[in-house]
Specification:
Helix content: 10-25%
Number of domains: 3
Order of helices and strands: HHEEEEEEEEEEEEEEEEE
Length: 278
């Protein structure tokens, strides 16, 4: 079965409308703030005769550029970014519009749930004292920078302010991994779980670079093989070189303290290659 151009356009419009409906249902704008309402189109020339050679040259340039991009994107360690620029250092990026990672598609339990909501990834913690996570399925990363945009939603006046969310690093199994989290009050913490035992590397600490509940936080971790560095945006918050766990997977997580709940929305994730420590 083949769709006509008009039928395909209708299906695309329906998919966009469904994503917009889901974003609005959780209190977000119908489209991402950076999205353009209309695509930009080149001006239409009134004259034709003077533009024949220009059209030929433009067509040749487009064909040459397309061939170059196809060649480059078939090589390892190249990714095509949303800007149309090819960047050798980007190992992967997922903005959840058309998910490419192995995140849990939809899981619901009595205590927590997770899955895609429009073009976002959501983790809900319904009960106090619960921790839930999902991994990306990336176990051979080398040296990398792993970052994401996340927002804890809710109200500063209710239990959701005591929820937290962030990144998992060097994940081996459910009893061995590092975590880097922020809470709804603008604090961050770094912990390691080793053979089921928790070790706090950095206790809950304030940072002016972190936002409170309802604001966006840009979190990143760099793992160069010898040291883990934890960032809020471009600012280094904490570093540790006593690495007792080997290289492993990375992931997303959310949790709640003994009196809290949590709702976190992830906008995108990215992994970028960095130099290996020597």
């Amino acid at each position: 079965m083949h769709l006509t151009a008009s039928e395909q356009a209708q299906q695309d419009d329906m998919a966009l409308d469904e994503r917009a409906r889901k974003r609005q249902a959780i209190g977000l704008s119908a489209a991402r703030p950076t999205a353009k309402a209309d695509a930009a189109h080149p001006p239409v020339a009134e004259g034709v005769r003077g533009n024949v050679w220009l059209a030929v040259l433009l067509l040749a340039a487009i064909l040459a550029t397309t061939g170059w991009l196809l060649l480059r994107t078939t090589q390892p360690n190249f990714s095509l970014l949303g800007t149309g620029r090819v960047d050798e250092s980007i190992l992967l990026r997922d903005d959840f519009m058309q998910p490419v990672l192995g995140l849990a598609p939809e899981v619901v339990t009595a205590d927590w749930s997770m899955g895609y909501v429009g073009d976002l990834y959501q983790i809900l913690i319904e009960q106090p004292g619960v921790l839930a996570w999902t991994t990306l399925g990336q176990i051979d990363l080398g040296a990398y920078r792993y970052d994401s945009s996340l927002m804890l939603t809710g109200s500063s006046d209710d239990s959701s302010a005591w929820g937290y969310a962030g990144l998992i690093i060097r994940y081996q199994n459910d009893q061995n991994f590092y975590l880097f989290v922020v809470d709804g009050r603008g604090k961050y913490q770094v912990q390691a779980q080793e053979n089921g035992n928790w070790r706090t590397l950095q206790p809950w600490t304030d940072s002016p670079r972190l936002t409170t509940i309802g604001g966006e936080n840009l979190l990143a971790v760099e793992d160069d093989g010898r040291q883990l560095r934890f960032y809020a945006g471009s600012e280094l918050l904490f570093a540790v070189d006593d690495l007792r766990l080997p290289v492993g997977d990375v992931g997303l997580l959310a949790g709640s303290r003994s009196q809290g709940t949590a709702q976190v929305l992830y906008d995108w994730v990215r992994i970028e290659a960095i130099p290996l420590a020597r």
